[in-house]
Amino acid sequence: MLCTGMLMIVLDGTVVNVALPAIQRDLGFTQGDLAWVVNAYLISFAGLLLLAGRLGDLVSRRTVFLTGISVFTVASLLCGLSWTSTMLVAARFLQGVGGAMTSAVILGMIFTMFPEPREQARAIGVFAFVASAGGAIGLLAGGALTQLTSWHLVFLVNLPIGVATLVAAVRFVPRDPGSGFGAGLDTLGAALVTGSLMTGVYTIVKPAAEHGWTDGATLTGTAITVFLLGAFVWRQATAAAPLLPLRIFRSRNVVGANLIQCLIVAGMFGLFFLGVLYLQQVQGYDALHTGIAFLPLTALMAVVSVRYAEPLTTRFGPRPMLLASMTAITIGLALWTRVPVEASYLRDILPAALVLGLGAAAGAPAVMMYAMSGSSAEDAGVASGLINTSMQVGGAVGLAVLSSAATARTRALSHGGVPDASALTAGYHRGFTIAAGLVIAGIAIALLLLRDPSASASAE
């Protein structure tokens, strides 16, 4: 039930992307405003993850999960019924609120419900598949729904899934008493971190992506983000009941896992963002065939995540698996830097996608294990929210950095008289190269910081 809820959230992250042209035509979005269909969701989602995770620790993770599913389902109905652009953007913001509440507590619930190491690793394998492969499933589902029916069904399909998940979770997910508010909820800390994350994500997806990192609005947004984040850290060091207890950062595994998660997700956007654009703008794929192109990758990730990730992680340990995973992701991205203008799917695209997908599936459980290894039972919710925040911030940063780098390269070549298809392909090559560099940085962090979770738990 937990992973079904997570799948609904993850699917929504990509299923909407392929429907954007139809949404633009129907509701009269300008090209600049169309991005807010994605950005409104991303800002509220990333901004509220830490707060939702901490509320789960204090109140009840089950309660926060059920509330999140309810909010997300109602917001999906509003999205599907939207008849104006303003209504859709507002409903997407509300969807992000429900998504944050749902996903922030799931990993913490898995760790408390499955304390036995082997069962825990198996549960994390299923969760990791949903979290990583759900994006590819969303591309296929979004293309099919948009082309065969209407973009409204992209949102309305969440209704039966959400209701079924809610009913089943009420029955099967056990109650968990929260630790209580004690000295009270850190409302100032909540306001500071939510403001910081929302400002930071807005800065990345709006002025930075559109005008560059040296633009005045970008610099102002960055300064406000840093100030609010610094004030939040000061508040957490002095508050009687902090929203994010700084003690969890004493674990080098937690710090390393969150940095690695951020870098891997940023790098993976090279596949799920630039790869989609390459297939559609250079190879001429439509939305449905783009989703079908990623179907083998999804199937491979399902098999590896559910069948092999747990026994391999148990046998070899999370650190070797994570290093092997990031090496495979790097090789996959390197193969994507070589895709030509006139590509063969079987020769050029499929091998690169499969190698990258294999790496993502094999290492995802290890990242989750490291992220939760240094947290106590009362901090499981905020640790879960933290690793999800790293995922969202990594995605936002990756989207801005890779897309701006690719666009700059394409624009420069186009002005030099290079044909459009060649200029676009060269731009995507640069984006894939940067993505590979980000994952290599993650390998360096793993070598420097990560220790065996069982050994570090006793030492820390």
Automatic annotation (TrEMBL):
It is a multi-pass membrane protein. GO terms for cellular component: plasma membrane. GO terms for molecular function: transmembrane transporter activity. It comes from Flexivirga endophytica. It is found in: Cell membrane. This is MFS transporter. PROSITE patterns: MFS. Keywords: Cell membrane, Membrane, Transmembrane, Transmembrane helix, Transport. Residues 1-454 form the Major facilitator superfamily (MFS) profile domain. Its main location: membrane.
